[in-house]
Write a structure and sequence with these properties.
binds 1,3-dihydroxyacetonephosphate, single chain, 11 helices, TIM Barrel, 8-stranded parallel barrel, alpha/beta
Length: about 250
């Protein structure tokens, strides 16, 4: 039984004060919530504040990126030890914005995934095709390559948890979404790849999220799909009302 997971990716938004105010509102909305897991991924600058505020609440905390090394001369980078120290349960890896604007490759992602698993941080591995790739019928191939290469060198996932997020690049921040059926097709395909790489049992327990313009208006349809176990939410996670509604709609 996979517990639904709703993750808010705040991206490069909110000052520490704004982050604290949002999280206080979310805490009151999610007190005593059961049957769905909630996590927020603030920018590094407000991770400590948010993490402290979320202690003893039902909200988990994640980071939006990390470097694979534990420490050293890597100016501007953040290590898994630092994230662990701040109580991060999750880290988003390979987001398309990292790939597009910061040159992140599958090889980088695989080093980060290994490092996250070593430090008991659950990686949320993002895959997804661009519009041109979709129109060329390459969605499955692109997602397969991104996933296989991101997990390269990881021979088994026994005792380790990963989450995969399917985020079609053309659906991020555009108001367009994949149809729930198309998203479920890709989520099912991702599960088959995991079954092939590891085992059917492993594939059955991995949570697969959909991301890309998720809102209160469309979450129910996505959650109704058999292979979609939750959502990675960008814009709609920045407001307590819309994020709160998305989470509550997962319970119906
Ligand atoms: P939006 O929900 O703003 O489309 O962003 C999706 C996303 O990139 C989450 O990681």
């Amino acid at each position: 039984m996979r517990i639904p997971l709703i993750v808010g990716n705040w991206k490069m938004n909110l000052t520490t004060k704004e982050a604290a105010s949002l999280v206080e509102k979310l805490k009151s909305r999610f007190s005593n919530i059961e049957g769905v897991e909630v996590a927020v991924c603030p920018p590094f600058t407000s991770l400590e504040t948010v993490s402290k505020l979320c202690k003893e609440s039902s909200i988990h905390v994640g980071a939006q990126n990390m470097f694979w090394e534990e420490q050293g001369a890597y100016t501007g980078e953040i290590s898994p030890l630092m994230l662990k120290d701040l109580g991060c349960k999750y880290v988003i890896l390979g987001h398309s914005e990292r790939r597009q604007f910061f040159g992140e490759t599958n090889e980088n992602v695989s080093r980060k995934v290994k490092s996250a698993l070593k430090h008991n941080i659950i990686p949320i591995i993002c895959v997804g095709e661009t519009l041109a790739q979709r129109e060329a019928g390459e969605t499955d191939r692109v997602c397969r390559e991104q996933l296989q290469e991101s997990l390269k060198g990881i021979d088994n996932l026994e005792g380790n948890e990963i989450v995969v997020a399917y985020e079609p690049v053309w659906a991020i921040g555009t108001g367009k979404t994949a149809s729930p059926k198309d998203a479920d097709h890709v989520a099912n395909f991702i599960r088959l790849i995991l079954a092939n790489m590891y085992s059917a049992k492993t594939a059955e327990r991995v949570r697969i999220l959909y991301g890309g313009s998720v809102k209160p208006e469309n979450i129910v349809e996505f959650m109704a799909q058999p292979n979609i176990d939750g959502a990675l939410v960008g814009g709609a996670s920045l407001k307590a009302d819309s994020f709160g509604e998305i989470v509550h709609l997962c319970l119906v």
